[in-house]
Model the fold of this input.
Amino acid sequence: MQAYRDLFIAIREDGTLSFTTQSEQDQAISFLTDQAGSLARNRNALCSLIGWDGDTLASRIRAMMDGDDFPPSAPDPSPIARKRHDKAVARIRARWRQLNAPRAA
Done:
């Protein structure tokens, strides 16, 4: 849940107060979406403790990153909360595209 929360909180920039760094958010993205490696194994182990399939969770998060709806945390958010949520989703998806862009050789 902390990794999912880290997707939506503001990124700390030089000289400003915030809740997370870009590096921490990138790690949350990897934890939630990786298909292999230590973060995927840790996610799957933690999910299994509550009866979830970590690979299914990762697949769903990747689909949301690629355009499926990211549901807001509240069932009926206020217009201001919805606007804030939509802005965060746009920021998360932009970072997802950056992290997955082909690297120049």
Remarks:
- The mean pLDDT is 89.
